[in-house]
Amino acid sequence: MFKTYKAQAWLLLAPALILLVAFTYLPIGNTIWRSVFGFGVQMGNQASPENYARLLDDPVFWQVLKNSALYALITVPASIFFALSMALWVNGKIAGTGFMRLSFFTPTMLPMISVANIWLLFYSSEIGLFNAVLGWFGVSGVNWLGNPDTALYSLMTMTIWKEAGFFMIFYLAALQTISPDLYKAAKTENASSLYIFRRITFPLLMPTTLFVFVNALLNSFKLIDHLFILTKGGPNNATNLLLYYIYENSFSFFDTAYASALTVILLLILIVMALIQFGVIERRVHY
């Protein structure tokens, strides 16, 4: 009888396991093998364990790594901050709550390609909305996407605008599960709004915050659609991110071995971040 149930369990798991192996573990294994034993365009006929040595001497790789780290360090906490702020705002009993919720969530429903084209119009140096507003105050136009000092931050602004509304929905749902009795008890003790948020609201939102944090961090490493429309990694690799650099090497330069090595580096970064998230941060989360 036990063997029968065990066989049934494996049969039920089989479809998911087959898909997981076929589309996750086999591609990972193939990527690692190709990064070590593949042939790179710049390596001639040599086997390419040296692909990893090339990383150390590749200035573009270090620039891309720096861009990706800065992109994540700014977009992730900013998206969480604005998402939580908007959720607290629309969770209150104020007029027009439904309209504001829809307004905050609307950017999420737009495809990234559409968003990139909209913001390309905003950032245009000649007919762009932002430069038109600056012109009202006598400020000369800014080349938002053509200046290495502003290009990456311009992309960050667009990303935060699009993602904050999506994460707001999760915070709003979590806020509505908190018992009102906790707030009534705190107000009975004359607790301030800041104290209530710090001691009641935010601790009870930590599971949601962890979920949002993980998704925002993953998005910061996988969102490359806007790069195709806005900058293509320029100017001078100022906006080039790791996943886009992998795409360039694989499909533009046809150097799949070096692209595989870059992919392994990205995989290692994600593994380290996962260990930090679920090994350190999750211990501070109370469910």
From TrEMBL:
Subcellular location: Cell membrane
Residue intervals passing through the bilayer: 9-28, 69-90, 151-175, 196-218, 257-281
Domain ABC transmembrane type-1 as annotated: residue spans: 65-277
InterPro entries noted in UniProt: ABC_transporter_permease, MetI-like, MetI-like_sf
Coiled coil: none
Membrane topology note: Multi-pass membrane protein
Top-level lineage group: Bacteria
Keyword list, A-Z: Cell membrane, Membrane, Transmembrane, Transmembrane helix, Transport
Pfam families per record: BPD_transp_1 (PF00528)
Family statement drawn from the similarity comment of this UniProt entry: Belongs to the binding-protein-dependent transport system permease family.
Protein name: Sugar ABC transporter permease
Species for this entry: Marinomonas colpomeniae
